[in-house]
Amino acid sequence: MDTNASFWLPPAKSTLASQTDPLFHFINITGGLILLGIVIVIGYCIIKYRRTSEDDITPNTTHNDTLEITWSIIPLFLVLIVFSWGFQGFMYHRTMPDNAYEIHVTGKSWLWEFTYPNGTTMINELHVPEDRPVKLVMKSEDVIHSFFVPDFRVKHDVLPGRYTSLWFEATDPGTALIFCTEFCGNGHSDMLATIIIHQEDDFKEWLESGVKAPDDIPLAEYGEQLYKSANCATCHSNDGSRIVGPSFKGLWEAERNFEDGTNAVADANYLRQSILEPMAKIVATYPPAMPSYQGTLKDFQVDALIEYIKTLE
Ligand code: CUA
Q: What is the sign of the dihedral through the CA atoms of 289, 294, 295 and 296?
């Protein structure tokens, strides 16, 4: 399969593309030809039937059977072709293969979380095997999000209180981008994730190795990576500026005042609780907007984030 991007479409990296792309081109080309035909006829009529003298009166023409039947029948056939062609692709897209590898997806403001059958959890990074159908079972923890992978030609809404699903089969090792395409608040445009497509053996190896702290960099530096990759940065600045939530700069051991009138010092226990149970203590003047990272971040990742916050004096 041709995986190169064209002017019209992004690169095709799933089996669904061979269903959708020819139809896309068919609609585009016939639409273009019809537009061209109409413009030519209009141009011809403007010149041929232009008013040349004062007594040039338009005859009282009411209709033309042949013309009207023609311009009804031809578009009827065209839309029937588009319907039956599109319906085939739709059925292919919506029929989940029985042998699909299942991954759970949770959308929350504003990140994507992926959970594997063995319990491995990833934030904003979806690892999949190539040449094998993958089924995503998706839900939202808050508002409506929409899971969109242009390179795979798949898109589906992700809803609170209901599971939705989609499937794809990646055709080449490499990467693809995931977008959120439902406007879901301040961090909507940051709700990006990457798909990493592995060869089957590499995928197994990756899955078995799980998530580990890198041992070649300091914990605080790993925390800084997580600050970006887990989308903390969408709501918490590291330079003191106010975004959605309080800045991380100067947060360590600072006095915090809460909505309910109580206060506390931002020590490790406070930071840990705020990451795992963000609704427990809401800092005064800030909205209760943060999703819980319970089960999303591992203990050592929470430690790494706290170490990173300590460095932001
Ligand atoms: Cu989630 Cu837009």
A: positive
How far apart, in whole angstroms, are the C-alpha atoms of residue 232 and residue 245? 10
pTM: 0.78
* CB neighbour burial string for 231-248, b if at least 16 within 10 angstroms, e if fewer: bbbbbbbbeeeeebbbbb
Burial of 252 (0-12, 13-18, 19+ CB in 10 A): buried
- The pocket around ligand 1, CB under 6 angstroms, is made up of 107, 110, 145, 180, 182-184, 188, 191
- Among 181, 195, 158, 156, CA closest to 14: 195
- State how far the Cα of 221 lies from the Cα of 216, in Å rounded to an integer: 10
| Band (3; pLDDT cuts 50, 70, 90) | low
Cα-to-centroid distance, 147 and ligand 1 (Å): 8
> Measured in angstroms, how far is the CA atom of residue 222 from the centroid of ligand 1?
26
Residue 213: what pLDDT? Answer: 75
